[in-house]
Amino acid sequence: MSLPRYREIARELKEQIQVGHYKEHQTIPSEPELAKLYDVSRMTARQAINELVYEGVLYRVKGKGTFVNHQKYEKSIHGLTSFSEDMIQKGFKPSSRLISQTVRLANEIVASKLQIKEGQEVIELKRVRMADEEPMAVEIVYLPVQIIKSLPDDIGAISLYDYIEKELGLLIDYSIQEIEAISLEAPISTYLEVEAGAPCLLICLQSYLKSGQIFEYVESYYRADRYKFIQPAYRKGI
């Protein structure tokens, strides 16, 4: 069964945006221009635009036109990959800005997440994660010193997982993740260059080595205007 004409046009416009024909915040053709381009009525052209506005792909500015919205990065929560690996796979240049790197004593919450005793030493690593120089997330990482003795001075510029696997020779196995929608507060909002109160996706994860040890607990604050998470779902046989 064929799609309605307005949905065919909406799909084609969306594909053109995805391949970069229309850039973020660039205006798209007006309703009369689209109607002429696709040989349809203005009502059909309007329906196509409305479809993409509803999806968040486009946005309107009264008196100025319709523009391409920020495109959200898709991150699968099926599988354990680093931020750097995700961005490279999507064709972006990943980078990090180091906020702080300190050794501290684990409080009750961190100790519980790492399954160590309260008061044991952990490395606390805070970084702003960026794609093509745009802030995407803030990560606060806790690493037990009994497993990760130290980190290199340039850890803000390299992949933590690469360092753990290639330099330390440890085998990363899996993680348990929790996702929560929250409102950002300072200073996290400042690091992400958004206003306090902006929506955020908080991911808390515990990551395990092949040995069964927990080697990290992470709190990652992702900009909700730039990220969406996807998870495949399979129906089990009854």
From TrEMBL:
GO terms for biological process: negative regulation of DNA-templated transcription. Signal peptide: none annotated. Keywords: DNA-binding, Transcription, Transcription regulation. The keyword Transcription regulation applies. Gene3D superfamilies: Chorismate lyase-like (3.40.1410.10), Winged helix-like DNA-binding domain superfamily/Winged helix DNA-binding domain (1.10.10.10). GO terms for molecular function: DNA binding; DNA-binding transcription factor activity. This is UTRA domain-containing protein.
